[in-house]
């Protein structure tokens, strides 16, 4: 093996950047790390912009503070590693609402992503099926089975709980539908409990008990100044060479590693490296894997994605409820699926001049045609629907922005975890210096993506001969 190592990280989102930081921390001194990003911007779905002179997120808004074990999340640990821990801030208003029959009702407590552990607590928004969640003498889900969240919850609690509660909460994260999304991938704690418990109420309570949270402890955090500060700090800490507008078009296995074909077809650049972290979405990953690992490519490439648009408006002194925002069931017939009152939810964003930042999310899986509207049309529709939900005309915005995220949110169908495990097993057996990382494989959310990138870096280090530190 030549020294120093040369490692390519394909994809400059937070998973790729977390991999680069971990490589710098754990790989032998002198390791050459290059990040290839096909766009002109790093950070993937982490993008902080500015409206009315104030930072505002045009992508991901926050991260979980704790992981499923109760320890600090990988996002918090990375922020600490990068010297940003003191910049972590938390919501000052946590209560959100659901739009039910055109009006706002508080989201009931005691649920697990909308799946109730106490049926009496959700009757303000949905009527659970009577006596359907009975003990049949066996676990809800078989030891190796995966089902859709919707199928499981409908069979136990009925349609209204899915449509009015679970669907909008899952949709707020994935822009997908509960009937299509894998229980194992989107709700792993509930899946584990469902392999033991005989009722869904029992499974929810068991999952909640397995991940206790200290009373009053914040669930979410973000960074004062915006999440792009995390991106910038990660680039600096990694010491990586960053190649923007550098599309990797082909991967070819060599006798000692990998050859990357980078740049335009008419004038390609060939780069030889020892190992590759492939931190791009599933479809571009499948294209790059088609040559060296066609079976893996076929398994990875089946993952579909949803597209969304985020419409942010700056409103002068609007009358807003004391809520962090609201979610919209698809049965309400609105274009918007969620709204966040940024300057209500986040105390550090409140302004003395009374300007309010409001952001709405538009787009559900399978409804991409709605996103073909021009920006001005989307913004006008969002303004009109927000006014209707709030029951009062909102003032005209003084500033605004429409951010489109095409193919942004993975739609994990049942069986995703098994397909991914098979793909990774095949890669380890045939190409151990080529590793997958990112939301397309391990789940959405900043902590999951950070952990995915870090794990990929550790696999590369092991494959190349182990850490020298």
Automatic annotation (TrEMBL):
Q: Which UniProt keywords apply?
A: Cytoplasm, FAD, Flavoprotein, Heme biosynthesis, Oxidoreductase
* Sequence ranges assigned to domain Amine oxidase in this UniProt record: 14-461
Q: In which pathway does it act?
A: Porphyrin-containing compound metabolism; protoheme biosynthesis
The record's EC number reads 1.3.3.15
Concerning InterPro entries, the annotation shows: Amino_oxidase, FAD/NAD-bd_sf, Protoporphyrinogen_oxidase, Zeta_carotene_desat/Oxidored
The catalysed reaction is:
coproporphyrinogen III + 3 O2 = coproporphyrin III + 3 H2O2
Cofactor dependency: FAD
Q: Which GO terms describe its biological process?
A: heme biosynthetic process
> What SUPFAM superfamilies would the database entry show?
FAD-linked reductases, C-terminal domain (SSF54373), FAD/NAD(P)-binding domain (SSF51905)
User: Which Gene Ontology molecular-function terms are recorded?
Assistant: oxygen-dependent protoporphyrinogen oxidase activity
Per the record, a Pfam family? Amino_oxidase
Top-level taxon of the source organism = Bacteria
Q: Where in the cell is it found?
A: Cytoplasm
Q: Name one GO cellular component term.
A: cytoplasm
Flavoprotein among keywords: yes
EC class of this enzyme? oxidoreductase
The UniProt function text for this chain reads:
Involved in coproporphyrin-dependent heme b biosynthesis. Catalyzes the oxidation of coproporphyrinogen III to coproporphyrin III.
Q: Which family does the UniProt entry place this protein in? A: Belongs to the protoporphyrinogen/coproporphyrinogen oxidase family. Coproporphyrinogen III oxidase subfamily.
Q: What protein name is recorded for this chain?
A: Coproporphyrinogen III oxidase
Organism, as annotated: Micromonospora ureilytica
Encoding gene, per UniProt annotation: hemG
């Amino acid at each position: 093996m030549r020294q120093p190592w040369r490692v390519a990280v394909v994809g400059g989102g937070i998973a790729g950047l977390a991999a680069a930081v971990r490589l710098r921390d754990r790989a032998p001194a002198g390791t050459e790390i290059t990040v290839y990003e096909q766009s002109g911007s790093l950070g993937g779905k982490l993008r902080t912009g500015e409206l009315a002179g104030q930072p505002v997120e045009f992508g991901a808004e926050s991260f979980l503070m704790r992981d499923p074990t109760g320890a600090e999340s990988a996002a918090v640990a990375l922020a600490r590693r990068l010297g940003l821990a003191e910049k972590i801030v938390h919501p000052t208003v946590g209560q959100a609402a659901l739009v039910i029959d055109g009006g706002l009702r508080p989201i009931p407590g005691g649920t697990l992503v909308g799946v109730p552990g106490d049926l009496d607590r959700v009757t303000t928004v949905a009527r659970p099926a009577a006596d359907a969640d009975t003990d049949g003498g066996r676990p809800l889900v078989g030891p190796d089975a995966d089902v859709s969240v919707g199928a499981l919850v409908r069979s136990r609690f009925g349609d209204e709980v899915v449509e009015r509660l679970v669907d909008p909460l899952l949709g707020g994260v994935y822009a997908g539908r509960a009937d299509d999304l894998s229980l194992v991938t989107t709700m792993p704690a509930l899946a584990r409990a469902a392999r033991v418990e005989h009722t869904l109420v029992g499974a929810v309570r068991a999952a909640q008990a397995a991940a206790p949270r200290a009373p009053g402890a914040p669930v979410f955090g973000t960074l004062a100044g915006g999440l792009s500060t995390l991106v910038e700090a990660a680039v600096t800490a990694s010491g990586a060479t960053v190649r923007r507008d550098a599309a990797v078009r082909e991967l070819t296995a060599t006798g000692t590693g990998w050859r990357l074909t980078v740049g335009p077809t008419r004038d390609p650049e060939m780069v030889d490296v020892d190992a590759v972290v492939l931190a791009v979405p599933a479809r571009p990953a499948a294209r790059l894997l088609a040559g060296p690992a066609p079976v893996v490519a076929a398994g990875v490439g089946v993952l579909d994605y949803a597209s969304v648009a985020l419409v942010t408006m700056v409103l002068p002194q609007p009358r807003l409820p004391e809520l962090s925002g609201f979610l919209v069931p698809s049965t309400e017939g609105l274009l918007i699926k969620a709204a966040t009152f940024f300057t209500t939810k986040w105390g550090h964003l409140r302004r003395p001049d009374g300007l309010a930042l409001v952001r709405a999310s538009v787009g559900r899986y399978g409804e991409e045609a709605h996103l073909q509207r021009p920006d001005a049309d989307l913004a006008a529709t969002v303004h009109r629907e927000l006014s209707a939900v709030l029951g009062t005309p909102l003032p005209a915005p003084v500033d605004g922005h429409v951010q489109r995220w095409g193919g942004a949110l993975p739609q994990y169908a049942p069986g995703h975890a098994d397909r991914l495990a098979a793909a990774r097993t095949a890669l380890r057996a045939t190409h151990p210096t080529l590793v997958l990382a990112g939301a397309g494989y391990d789940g959405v959310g900043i902590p999951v993506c950070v952990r995915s990138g870090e794990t990929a870096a550790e696999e590369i280090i092991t494959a190349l001969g182990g850490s020298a530190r």
